[in-house]
Structure formats: structure tokens, C-alpha cells
Amino acid sequence: MNISNLPTPEVTQGPLPASRKVWHAGVLHPAIRVPMREIDLHPSAGEPPVTVYDSSGPYTDPETPVDISAGLARVRRPWVEARGDVEAYDGRHVRPEDNGFVQGERLVPEFPQRHQPLRAKGSAAVTQLAYARAGIVTAEMEFVAIRENLGRRAAKEAAVRDGQDWGAAIPDHVTPEFVRDEIARGRAILPCNINHPELEPMAIGRNFLVKINANIGNSAVTSSMAEEVEKMVWATRWGADTVMDLSTGRNIHNIRDWIIRNSAVPIGTVPLYQALEKVNGIAEDLTWEVYRDTLIEQAEQGVDYFTIHAGVRLHMIPLTVNRVTGIVSRGGSIMAKWCLHHHRESFLYEHFEEICQICRAYDVSFSLGDGLRPGSIADANDAAQFAELETLGKLTHIAWAHDCQVMIEGPGHVPMHKIKQNMDKQLEVCDEAPFYTLGPLTTDIAPGYDHITSGIGAAMIGWFGCAMLCYVTPKEHLGLPDRDDVKVGVITYKIAAHAADLAKGHPGAQVRDDALSRARFEFRWEDQFNLSLDPETARALHDETLPKEAHKVAHFCSMCGPKFCSMKISHDIRAEAQKEGMAKMAEKYREGGSLYMPLDTVKEDV
Amino acid sequence: MNISNLPTPEVTQGPLPASRKVWHAGVLHPAIRVPMREIDLHPSAGEPPVTVYDSSGPYTDPETPVDISAGLARVRRPWVEARGDVEAYDGRHVRPEDNGFVQGERLVPEFPQRHQPLRAKGSAAVTQLAYARAGIVTAEMEFVAIRENLGRRAAKEAAVRDGQDWGAAIPDHVTPEFVRDEIARGRAILPCNINHPELEPMAIGRNFLVKINANIGNSAVTSSMAEEVEKMVWATRWGADTVMDLSTGRNIHNIRDWIIRNSAVPIGTVPLYQALEKVNGIAEDLTWEVYRDTLIEQAEQGVDYFTIHAGVRLHMIPLTVNRVTGIVSRGGSIMAKWCLHHHRESFLYEHFEEICQICRAYDVSFSLGDGLRPGSIADANDAAQFAELETLGKLTHIAWAHDCQVMIEGPGHVPMHKIKQNMDKQLEVCDEAPFYTLGPLTTDIAPGYDHITSGIGAAMIGWFGCAMLCYVTPKEHLGLPDRDDVKVGVITYKIAAHAADLAKGHPGAQVRDDALSRARFEFRWEDQFNLSLDPETARALHDETLPKEAHKVAHFCSMCGPKFCSMKISHDIRAEAQKEGMAKMAEKYREGGSLYMPLDTVKEDV
After folding, report:
1. Pairing status of strand B118-120 against strand B188-189
2. Of A10, B105, B161, B428, which sits most exposed with the smallest number of CB within 10 A?
3. Who's near A543: CB < 8 A, 6+ residues apart?
4. Distance CA A373, CA A500 (A)
């Protein structure tokens, strides 16, 4: 294949406004360079830059050249090799069925660079969990520790803790040892396939910042490789911490290669989707052999976590029959159909320990799928859902016994008053393995706005302890999200995750809120835009009515106009108060003397 | 003035898709006609129409001609007159300062129809609270009872109660007597100025459906009369239960007349804004006389509730000085400035009982403003905020002593873990007077998306007992909302209110969710669109990828494509299960025999 003829996808690049990428080196592992974003403020603020978590990868760094057809730098490769427990090998050859038998012009070209895959030597477990249990602080763990701290110092932050953490154990300062311990206990995962060396390590766990996932992927109906690569870059630009490639159409293998080679965030998949393509979409024709082959194929490519619907068991299926919306998980419904047809327990369940053997050889994390999650308010927290959750708890312990990292997927559609029960039950049944929920959607009646119906539930369950929130876009239930939908979904979920961090009292979470609020109060409009989750939109909405540059320093906006600006008046008040001395002023006015006072006695009279 | 020369505003009219307006008559008051919307389903559903609450007024009824320059039918006039306690009088004459001294072409024309205002005879209280305390079930109260029930029958709904109501007392079936009792106890208000006979009565209280308010209004910078009337009609079309006219520019009086005469929902205002215009925007020049004159002016026009910032007291102002965002309520900051300048308690506080005298003569409800609400996460639940709330509790009892209806405004910016404290404290301090909150916004970092940051908080506080949620649009903090922003704000808040109703276990709330979910499961796409809060958007998003009519009956969407549709597979499963008999099937598979079983013992081993 002639690489120069490839239609290299164009992706969005360049820093966000007023932002610079900075790198922090490790101490235990001096070679690591942990990216953060510093947002510069106007000199009049007299404040240092605000440091924020940066999931965007090298695309926002003008110093790093981007070449999609070459892929990102394979930074982690030496870290993995230094551990001395992996070997390179030829790997599985790509077969026609891997791309849905598509040929000729309709075949998405292979990714131009071919790398030999790695796997564990012998029966070694090369997972972060295995290292953590062995007391090893890996480079990945130190990377995460630095990243989670956002450059803050322990002492300063400890003073401002304020929140209700529902029994979490969030430290003032994240040490590499803390990361190791959380992973060893199974309370966090660090998804990082040894064949995805382009990845910047991150952690998912209730004692870390709440993370979000964005789903991308083509379907049989729509979307192309170039679009999907750009969606991945775009989603991470706005804050997606992981990306799931849920492609179900043709070209699955090749599109995934392009995505992984260019992704700085962990990539998750549902291997069942590709396995089903390999048997022409006929669920009954699925076999363990086809599925196993798909796991190997994807593990070699570098997929960081697999959604595996092994909790759907035969005896649970009748529990879904009288539901309002039956089984709404694609994977769950496929497995249920298979189980019913063959009248036996699913091959995912029967071969679960073999799946563990594969995952531990590449460090693919489990995302145990909730195939029986509720798809409507009516079906929330029902017998089918919780029966499956019990099984997921048992599978969690099996995976742990094989040194595999595990998180648990959760619903779905759940009214607000049933959300906490989901979280509490998951923590109990799965011994605090990280929970990873889709929403949940708090009502069924707003298709077109399900990023919002679910953003409500996501914020709440994030607060209660959910470790990662899978975004929902405005297109949910209606179609495949495009680039705009992806952005709206990501920003909505960044809001939910951040609201959760604030409510949990995560140290340092409020730093950005405070900086933005000060900018707002001081009419530093540019700073207000730059500190926001979506500077472009904030600026555009402001400029709809006040487009001139002069308005960027105006002491009002079009909402109230100059005469009515409460913030402007507040400044006058502050000035007056400071003139007089606040303590004196407060004393003078407190329950002040001859003022109108019948009020205090009224309550008793009524 | 030649009426035919008036630029009569055009407003959006016509029913929503598949919807008919139906009217329910009263029993105690046979003349009343309570509007509801029935959404017809496809015949294949075999289901009756779904009845939903209808705040849209006559504009969605093709049978009712609309003439904006004539105003809506003055239906309540005979109800008010029949009580025999009001008198018509000449009323106050419009003065140049009422419209900001604007003249000539820039003056918005007066509303063409002039009606004599009504007021209470002598010192009578003509409030719904006074009637309720006297044991009188007014036509307005029966209207509300029918409206809240949505045509449902008690027995059927009682069976499906499911929720956590945090101590509310929501009945299975709302009787007129229940409405009377809730109003008598001060736990609900029924805002209905005797000079707003065009209004369709509604109730605000924690034991009724959660309501939402939309703010409209011009500012000195932007917006015209025609736009504001359309915004009011538009906001109610999508579900706004009340509308606040927060105009602060010129032409305030005349624009308000056009709005009220054409509004079927209660209209609220902040009279201080107009009073300030009358003194050329100089807060220090405000006087009780100017303010009192404005109250009379607006009461005669028919304003249904007044936001009055009487809780801002002199001794509280120093408590705001070290806040991150000072005072962010416009009314609060104006009064604080006045108090500081004059070094005395505000005229709102000193003359509160005279304000009560005015309100009881027209039945204008109080919305006690939270002038010291927090404007940032940092300032949430601070001493200033709660000091004011204590005062609002005392003012509530004074207003009640004068037979005035009262609700209490609330924040603002509050992180999730501090929301419930707001609700609990308000219920306690204000003896369950209805709470009416702005959001609250759960983070400060997302300007451009504050409908979402606040929709999260609104859903939660609605669940906890908040009676009405004041919407926030994407333009919050950035500019004045346009028509699109109004719609997004309203739909977001309908989601929050409905999610709250579901979580409280409001009887019947889930009917619409269930109907929509059944439609979704049965691939009745048209029904799914029609049952949604915003059918236009749902349809448009679906049609972006599958525009053809044939796709409206397709058993898949572009999200997963035909092969992967879980709902399609669920139907196969249901068919198979029903063939075999579900009970038998369940029995056969339960913990089935020889299946792979090491799992149950794993937990103990690990």
C-alpha cells in the first residue's frame, strides 16, 4: 500500500484560549512527563495561572508535531519493556472478516505503521493490579498521582476541604503510593494495555477525580474513519477521559487501529459487536472461538478495556420479559438471544476465567457490562437488574483472583430517588470496584435532551461515589452523534463530573470555580471565558449582544444593562465598607437600635 | 390613538403535534373550563390519549381566535365580581416616568383596550388565602384541583405510588378542599391578581406538581415589546407555569400591559426595577413614595406576584463584603446601596406592613426576594444568605397575618452537598411557605451551559420540596436570552421539574414516561416524538440521519443500525418466552443444574 495516497484525516489542533500545556516530571520515574493545562489570567487579576486537568493529548501542544498517519509517540513502550515481563511476537494476521468482508474502495486502509504486539511472557500477569499487589509503584502510577494533584500542594488544599463524600477516602494529596494502594485494593483501575504505549495514564476510582467517557463509533448506517478519528480527538479536547469505540458497521478493525494509534486516552470497546459482525450479525452463530479470536485481535491492537456482558445469565432472562423496555443493552440482548436459542449459560460466563487469562496477558481492564440495565423509569432497580449486579460482584472477585483490573457498568434510566440505591448496592456487592454508569437518565420524556436528563443523574451518582460517567448526547435514542453532539455531551458530563467533585469535597476542585467567579465579579470577561469549560461558546453567547472589544472590559452585560448590574453595585458597597472598616460597620448595624422591630415577636402571635 | 396603526405582535400559535386541547368543567363551579392537552397515540398502540398539563393558554387551541391587540378573554372577571368584595375605580393615570420618559416613535404604544381596575372594598382582603381561611372553595381553587389531577382517577394512581417525598403530603387525588387547605396553611399559593382575569389559575406548593418560571424582559441594551410578548407566549407554549417580566429599560409600563393582557399564566415582576427607572437609575434617590406608587401601578395592571427584597437588612450587608461575588441579586444590591447611603433600614422592610395592605387589596402574592443569595460556589450557604432567610421567615408570618399569599425565593449558586440544607432550612424557617429557587447552579465553571449546571440543582431541590424552579438559560451571566434560549431554558426546567415529580412519587407523573417508553420499545417513532417535551427537536435529530417517512416505522435507528437493535432483539426474546410460558421458563433456568458454577464460592476464597 502506498502510504502517500492515504487520505490522512484532519483533526482539530492547537491550544485552547489563553492556555499553555505544561509538563511535570516524576520523582520515582524522572522520565515521565505529565501534561497539565495552565490558563493564564489577565495581569490585572494579580493571580497565578489556573492549572486544570488535561486529557487532550499532544493535539493542544503547538510544540508537538501531529501526524495522524504516524500515530502519537509511543512513550510508554520503554516503561513496559523495562519491567522485563513482556515479549514481542508476530501476532494475529488481519482477516477479511475483521473488517466485515469489505473490499476495494470501501475498505478503510490499514493504519500505515505496523508494530509488533507485546504480550506477557509465560503466564505472567502484566497488569497494574499485579504490580500494585507486589508493592511496585509503576511509572503509570506515579504519572496518575502527579496528574490527579494538578500541581497543588497538600497543605494549602487541606484547609479548604468542604463536602460530603459518602464514605470515600479522598486524600489531601495523592501520592504514588496512594495510587498503588487504591489499585491493589481494586478500588481504582489504571486502564493501559501494554499495546497502547501512546496512552497518557489515568485512573478511575471513587477516590480520584470523577472521570467521563465519550462513545464514538460508526454504525451500519453512517460515519467514516476520518470522522471517527476526529471525534476521538475532539472529545478528548473538551475533556473526555476515555473513549469507547462502539463501531458496529464494517471496517471495524482498521478504523480502530487509526483511533488507538492516535489516542492519548484509554480506548474501550465491546468486543461482542465485532464478533457479531464476523458471524454476519446472527447472534445464534456466535461461538467462544470467534469471540476469543476477537479478544486477542483487539488486545493486540491495544484496546485498554473490554465491556464484557458476562453477567447476563440464563435464569435472569425471564425476569426481563414483562419489562416496559425489555433488554436495552445491545450486548445484553445479543447474549440473551444466544442463551435462549442454545438453552445454555452464555459462553462469556462459562469462559470467564479464560477471558481473564487473556486480559492479564495484555493488561486489558474489564468493564463488566450491565446487559440487563433498565431502559426506562418503569424498569429501574428491578429484579433483573439487581440479579445481574450480584453476578457482576462474583465476576469481579474472579477477575481479581487473576490479577485483572475491573470496573462495573451501571444504568441507564433511574429516577432520582433510586440512584443512591444503585451506588450503595454496587459498592457493597462489588467491594468498591469502580462504578461506571451511563447517566442515569432521570426521566424518559425528553428525547433530544437526554444529555440533560442524564446529566442530572450523572452528577448525583458521581457525588455518591461513581468513578466514571459515560456521556449521553442529545442524539441518544434518536441517532448517531455527530461532532457537535459529541461536544455537547462531553461538556455536559464535565459539568456533572465537576459538580460531583465539588460535592464530594475533592481538594482543589473549587479552585477553578473561585477563579472564574472572581473574574466574573471583577468584570474580567476574557478570563471568565478562558476559565470556562467551553470558552468558544461562552464568548459567542456574550458577543451575540455585545460584540465589541470594548465590551470585554465593560462593567455590565446585556442581561441587566449598566444601571442594574448587581456586581457593579457590590463593588461600590465594598469600597464604602472598606472605607469605614468592616468590623465597625457590622457592629454598628447589628440588630440596630431604634429600627423597626415588631418582626421578632410576630412568629409567636400568628 | 388609532388602533389600526398599531404594530400588533405576531405570536406562535397552533397545537403541538398530535395534540388536542380538552376542557374539563367544574362541579362546585360548573362554569370553569380547565384546559389540558391530550396527545393522541397511533392506533396500533391500542392506548388512550395521554393527558398532560397545559400551560400554553388559548394559543394552542385552534378553536379560539387570537387577537393580541384585544387581549385574552377576561374569564375570571365574573368569578371575582361574584364574590362581592371588589369595586371598580378610575385607577392611577399613566405618567411619563412609567415608561422612562420615552416619547414619540420610541414610545411603545399603550395597550389599545383600557379596563377599569378593581380593588378590594374598604379594608377587605380579597386574597385566596383569606377565602381559604374562611373555608371558601373558590372557583380558582377548584380549577387548580382539576388541573393538578390531569383527569386521573384516584384509585388507579394510588396503586403506582413510588417515591421518596421527604415529608411532603401529596394526596392520591387532589380535591378542591385539599387545595383550599394547602392555601389556608400557607403551604401553597394561587397567584391571581383580581386585575388579571385572563389568567388560568395554577398553584405553587410542595404538594402539587413542581412548577417552573421563565424570565423575560427587555433591558436598556436590547429587546422590544413584540419580542417580549412572543417570548411570553413561546415560554408558556413549552411549559412555563409563570412568567416574570424583568424589564429594566424604557417602556416598562406599556410593554407589561401588552404582556399581562395576553398572558394565561401568572405574571411576576420586581417592582424595584421600575421604581429605579423612575428615579433615573440612582439607587439613593429611591423613596417609599416612588416605590409605593409603582406597586399600585403594577397591581392595577394585574401583576400576580411581586418580588420584594425586604429581607436585606442593614446589619447583614457587612456579611457580604468579603464574599467572592458580593451581592448578585439586582434588587438586593440596589437596596443594599440605598441602606448604606442612608445608613438606615430599607423602606421595604420599614413599610412591609403597608406593602401587605396593598397586596391584600388586589391579591398580589409575595415572592420574598433573596437579595443576598450566593452568586458563586464559594458564597453558598454563608452567614449573609441564612441571616436573610431568617428575616424572610419573619416577613412570611407578617404577610400571613395580613392574609397575603407568600412564597420565598432561594439561591443561586450552591454545590450539590449544600442543596438539601437550603430546602430544609427554608421549610423550617418559613413554615413550609413555598420555596422558589433560581437553579441552583452546582458549579461556576460553565458559562454558556448554565441551564445545565442549574438544571442539576433544580431537579434536586425540586425533589427535596421546592415548589417552583426559576429557569436559567444558556445566556445566564452572558446576555439577555433570545427566543431559542427561552425554549432551551424552559425545556431544561420541565425536565428538572418532572424528574422531581417522579422522585417525589407524585401520582400519575410516570404515566407519560411509561407511554413514551412503550412507544420507544414498539418502534412507534411518531408517538415517541409526540410524547416528548419537545417533539420538534426529537423529530429533527432523528431525521438528521434517517429522514424518510419509511424510517418512522423502522425497527431500528441510526444509532445502532438494524442488526444491533437491542429492542428488536428483546421482542424476539419476548416472543420466544411467551411461546414457552414465562413461569416455566424461569423455573427451568433458575440456578440451572449442571451449569458452570464455581462462581458462588469464589467470594469466600479471594
Report:
1. unpaired
2. B105
3. none
4. 23
The SS3 call for residue B417 is helix
> Residue A464 in contact with residue B417, Cβ under 8 Å?
no
Residue that is written with C-alpha cell 385552534 in the block: B62
In B155-235, the DSSP E strands lie at 188-189, 204-205, 211-216
- Hey, are the CB atoms on B574 and A326 less than 8 Å from each other? yes
Q: In terms of Cα–Cα distance, which of B207, B209, B236, B234 is closest to B497? A: B209
Reduced to 3 states, what is the DSSP secondary structure of residue A255? helix
Name every chain A residue with its beta carbon within 8 A of the beta carbon of B340: 573, 576-577
- State how far the Cα of A48 lies from the Cα of A41, in Å rounded to an integer: 7
The mean pLDDT value of chain B amounts to 91
Strand, helix or coil for residue B253: helix
- Ligand-binding site membership of B131 (annotated): no
Separation in Å, CA of A7 to nearest CA in chain B:
24
SS3 B146: helix
Rounded mean pLDDT for each run of 10 residues along chain B, 606 residues in total: 51 96 96 96 95 97 93 97 97 93 89 96 97 98 96 59 90 95 98 98 98 87 79 97 92 95 98 95 96 98 98 94 93 94 96 98 98 97 98 98 98 97 98 98 98 98 98 94 95 98 94 96 95 97 84 72 75 75 55 37 34
pTM value is 0.94
CA distances (Å), origin A602, targets A219, A379, B188, B391: 67, 50, 21, 11
Categorise residue A228: left if φ over 0, alpha if ψ from -120 to 50, beta otherwise.
alpha
Secondary-structure class of domain A141-510 per CATH: alpha beta
A457 belongs to an annotated ligand binding site:
no
Instruction: Determine which helix (DSSP H) or strand (DSSP E) holds A35, and give its type and residue range.
Output: strand A33-39
SS3 B343: coil
Phi (first) and psi of residue B446, to 5 degrees: -130, 55
Per the CB < 8 A criterion, the answer to whether A205 and A433 are in contact is no
CA distances from A16 to A509, A534, A543, A553 (A): 20, 9, 18, 21
In angstroms, rounded to a whole number, what is the distance separating the alpha carbons of residues B437 and B409? 5
A566 and B518: CB-CB below 8 Å?
Answer: no
Q: Which chain B residues touch A340 with a CB distance below 8 Å?
A: 573, 576-577
Q: How far apart are CA B124 and CA B384, in angstroms?
A: 37
CA distance B571 to B553: 15
Task: Give me B407's grid cell.
Answer: 412564597
Whole-number Å distance between alpha carbons of B89 and B86: 10
Please indicate if any CB of chain A lies within 8 Å of the CB of B219.
yes
Question: Which pLDDT value is given to residue B525?
Answer: 94
Cis peptide leading into residue A440 (ω within 30°):
yes
Give me the amino acid identity at B202. Answer: M
Q: In this structure, are residues B503 and B166 in contact, taking their beta carbons and an 8 Å threshold?
A: no
Phi-psi region of A539 (alpha: psi -120 to 50; beta: other; left: phi over 0): alpha
Note the ipTM here: 0.94
Of B246, B256, B250, the C-alpha closest to B220 is B250
Question: What pLDDT is attached to residue A574?
Answer: 79
How big is chain B, counted in residues? 606
Q: Which residues pair with A437 in a beta bridge?
A: A410, A469
pLDDT score, position B569 = 81
CA max distance for chain B: 92
Model pLDDT for residues A196-243, shown as the tens digit of each residue: 999 999 999 999 999 999 999 876 555 588 899 999 999 999 999 999
The distance of Cα B133 from the centroid of its chain, to the nearest Å, equals: 25
Please state the length of chain A.
606
Measured CA distances, B586 to A315, A321, B551 (Å): 6, 10, 35
- Domain range summary for chain A, segments of one domain joined by +: 141-510, 568-605
B448 contacts A557 by C-beta, under 8 angstroms: no
Is A571 annotated to bind ligand?
A: no
